[in-house]
Design a protein that fits this description.
Order of helices and strands: HHHHHEEH
Number of helices: 6
Structural class: mainly alpha
Radius of gyration: 16 Å
Shape: globular
Helix content: 55-70%
Oligomer: single chain
Distance between the termini: 28 Å
Largest sheet: 2 strands, antiparallel
Strand content: 5-15%
Length: 150
């Protein structure tokens, strides 16, 4: 919700873009890698809006303690109006798994060791890492500082 609120404030100005990368922590969430692939499969059919709608739906039905049955991934796709046959084929496509693995590797390389993890890149190229959940005011302040660096 917080990053959604940030985008409501900044997206129309073109000053801020939210770029999502996967960091499935399978030691804590055994299904996270498969769920990440599923979100990419939603993207493959309905682009950016499909990705975010899938993510929102996934988080809204996921119980704690790794309790989401994997068959629910296809149910979410069906409720969204995606082609379930194309979605199912995509889930088994190794290219999607490679994409998620690449994201995870990049995240680890820049120091991410948990989620959420955010990186704010200023116009001058400097980076600010935000570890853990941050509230709107904290992220907004970090963005303001970054935007001042030109």
């Amino acid at each position: 919700q917080t990053l959604g609120d940030i985008m409501k404030k900044y997206a129309s100005s073109g000053q801020v873009a939210w770029v999502y990368r996967h960091l499935p922590l399978e030691m804590l969430h055994t299904k996270a890698f498969r769920e990440a692939i599923a979100s990419e499969c939603a993207y493959a059919q309905k682009w950016n809006n499909g990705f975010w709608l899938y993510i929102d739906n996934l988080f809204s039905v996921t119980p704690s303690n790794d309790g989401l049955p994997l068959e629910e991934l296809k149910n979410i796709a069906q409720r969204m109006g995606l082609s379930v046959s194309a979605f199912s084929a995509c889930l088994d496509d190794t290219k999607m798994g490679d994409r998620v693995s690449k994201d995870r590797g990049e995240a680890v390389n820049i120091g991410a060791d948990g989620t959420p993890f955010s990186v704010i890149i200023a116009p001058d190229g400097s980076r600010t890492a935000l570890y853990g959940a941050q509230n709107f005011a904290q992220i907004d302040q970090a963005i303001q500082v970054a935007l001042s660096r030109k």
